[in-house]
Sequence to fold (82 residues):
Amino acid sequence: MDQPDSDTDWVFVGDSNEAVMQRFIHRQNLEHFRERLAEAADEAERERLLKLFAEEETKDQSPPDKSDYDEDGERYEAQRSG
Fold:
């Protein structure tokens, strides 16, 4: 099976359009905050961005959706990082 080229290529069977969109938005938010942190002009902006980034990261702590796993119980993300 061909591996997807990016995170946005993954679509899980049984996911609603809303779930797919929420994961996409979450990944985009994290990427955006990382870029903004690298360009932060002052400490106040950096602290504000770090807070927003941390809040977005906590969304990763929610219980995984069953559709995040393949038929063997392996996370799809783990398959991409090899």
About this structure: The mean pLDDT is 75. The chain is about 50% helix and 0% strand. Residues 15-80 form one domain.
